[in-house]
Task: structure prediction
Amino acid sequence: MAVDPELLEILVCPADHGDLEQIDLPEAVRTRLAQRYQEEFKDERAVVESGLRCTVCGRVYPIVSDIPVMLIDEALEGPEVAG
Ligand SMILES: [Zn+2]
Result:
């Protein structure tokens, strides 16, 4: 499961336009987010394995079924995904 490298290249943090790096999310966070986004995926299974971390502010934007969710309101704070 990977985001299109060309898409990754043009995506920036919506808060500060910082560069993003793809990271693996801890199991507990994956489970919580998959449950959270499942409500919006009626027939499909929401799959959450990784996120995009801003190299400037440290916010992490979840990637849900290969789609990066680039919303500040739904970003994870750094400490939440550490470990
Ligand atoms: Zn940022």
About this structure: Residues 13, 15-16, 18, 54, 56-57, 59 surround zinc ion (CB under 6 Å). The chain has one domain: 5-81. The two ends are 21 Å apart (CA to CA).
